[in-house]
Amino acid sequence: MSQTKTLTTASGAPVADNQNSRSAGPRGPLLLEDFHLIEKLAHFNRENIPERRVHAKGSGAHGTFTLTRDMAQYSSAKLFDTIGKQTPTFLRFSTVGGERGSADTERDPRGFALKFYTEEGNWDIVGNNTPVFFIRDPLKFPDFIHTQKRLPQSNLKSAQMMWDFWSHSPESLHQVTILFSDRGIPDGYRHMHGFGSHTYSLINAAGERHWVKWHYKTKQGIKNLPPAEAARLAGTDPDYAQRDLFGAIERGDFPKWRVCMQIMTEAQAAAHYENPFDVTKTWSQKEFPLIEIGELELNRNPLNYFAEVEQAAFGPSNMVPGVGLSPDRMLQGRVFAYADAHRYRVGTNHQHLPINAPRVPVHTYQRDGAMAFGNNGGAAPNYEPNSFADAPKQAPQYAEPPLALSGAADRYDHRVDSDYYSHAGALFRLMNDEQKALLINNIAGAMDGVSADVVERQLQHFYNADQAYGDGVAKALGVMAK
Questions:
Q1: What is the Rg, in whole angstroms, of the alpha carbon atoms belonging to the chain?
Q2: Sign of CA dihedral 361, 367, 372, 373
Q3: Whole-structure pTM value
Q4: pLDDT tens, position by position, 134-151
Q5: Would the annotation count 420 as a binding residue?
Q6: Is 62 an annotated catalytic residue?
Q7: Structural domains of the chain, with CATH
Q8: What number of CA atoms fall less than 13 Å from residue 184's CA on the CB side?
Q9: Residue 128 annotated as catalytic
Q10: Contact, 192 vs 109, CB < 8 A?
């Protein structure tokens, strides 16, 4: 017979009575000296860390990445050094605009944030289930996200502010077209593709850099929810995607994705007819075909949602030798913003938490701050350079090759290319009649009640992408077509 565990306080002291507070007599007031009562109430008040400003509602699971292709010509990263090698991963899915209590079946992009626990440290790729994004300059990110949240006065979502922003931001049309298509509401997280979205880079042992787009192709097949069914589930099972993912892994039906990449040389990028670092556009798969390099499998559910999903912290600033960033403006902004959000939301030492901690020794001169786990560096020096032979030293052999830059520093207009429409138009023309009708009806429904000036401005974007696109939305809105 197992021995009963003794209840303790967080400091390890045994608790004699967990049912009754200390009071001055059976009917008297409570005593401040009841440290157990105070500790329980104080901890309870702080159990909710601030939710993420974006991607607040999410699900996550542990898994593995298995390499299936020789990557030596592209990257020196050790996770790519042997075919068949497996690297532990953690993947967090999410909706973008909703709060933690929102429904999983809202029309919204889905986050697809992937952490690799490599033998050289942690590598994070932050992306979505779409290959593009609404904007291409991080200066506009706070403005955009405000339009996806709530009005300051009424605290209600507003179609007017969403479409007002989009109509003033024509570069958003490609992502808007995807969002209101049949793929705007995935059937859970298992039946959707993932994308790194941004342009990243790989660097090989010879110091050669290649630009790369990451794609994760679901092996479960694409499945999406009709709007009426999504609305029903939002009211009856708002945690539908969480339930589906957790249940599938529990029963051993492990979801898998083919990990693929598109590759572009620096010379090809310099001569490319479009900016290859523009996250509102995709790369042609005819010119830059998908190369399959491995398989991602999710095979273990978290034991504790808060510890492993809510406290999980991803950021493109987490890199290992052999991988890198790019001049993608949005990616550059996220390098700062993601890590800074974690410092605010979880704490200065969020990297120490088990879900975020690398699986390799860490040698840093960072010290102190809230929740500094372990011995906080012990007696080792907290400055560098220093005269200690056994203290951590920089390793120049891991330096990235130089990236050629040119031009005077200025605030360059990112809309100078004026091509906001060709990609959205091409996507529209790829759709069959049923998909086009669904897209148009979804847009018209979402624009219900939007002011005439915003409607007129947004309609012009649809027309610029494709005449039939504009005609269809105009007809659905009851507006005279052009």
A1: 25
A2: positive
A3: 0.94
A4: 999 999 999 999 999 999
A5: no
A6: no
A7: 58-153+186-370 (2.40.180.10)
A8: 24
A9: yes
A10: no
